[in-house]
Amino acid sequence: MRLGRVLGIMLAVWLLSSLPARAVEVIAHPSVAIPRLNLTYAKGLFSMRQTRWPDGTRAWVFVLPDNHPVHGAFSKEVLNLYPYQLRQTWDRQVYSGTGQAPIEVASEEEMLRRVANTPGAIGYVGRVNPHDPVRIITVD
What we know:
Blueprint: H1 2-18, E1 25-28, E2 36-37, H2 39-46, E3 60-63, H3 69-78, H4 83-96, E4 103-104, H5 108-117, E5 121-125, E6 135-139
Parallel strand pairs: 2-6, 3-4, 3-5
Antiparallel strand pairs: 1-5, 1-6
């Protein structure tokens, strides 16, 4: 009985440790005081339907180009959406005059720089280094 339980625990630990780590980090300006967002709020921000943080501060949303691999990974892994679904949402809002698209940056380096220098900003990169002046936000 005891050996079976130990083997079961070892199997569970092995399975959990073999899961791939998330390939994308959601980042925000250091002034953003929220350490985690639920998936619904994150989708609202990145779909541009939610334009403010819970404290009322303006949220500035930065994204990478549609064809960037990190954008694809972010859309699928973090938001559970395909990149084309985000694009359709943005285009619908822009063309109907009910909203705007997020600010597109050309590279992860530019993303880090713009998010770090824009109070209220949120974006994403493949990996954050310890010296990067941004806050990591957990989305669950």
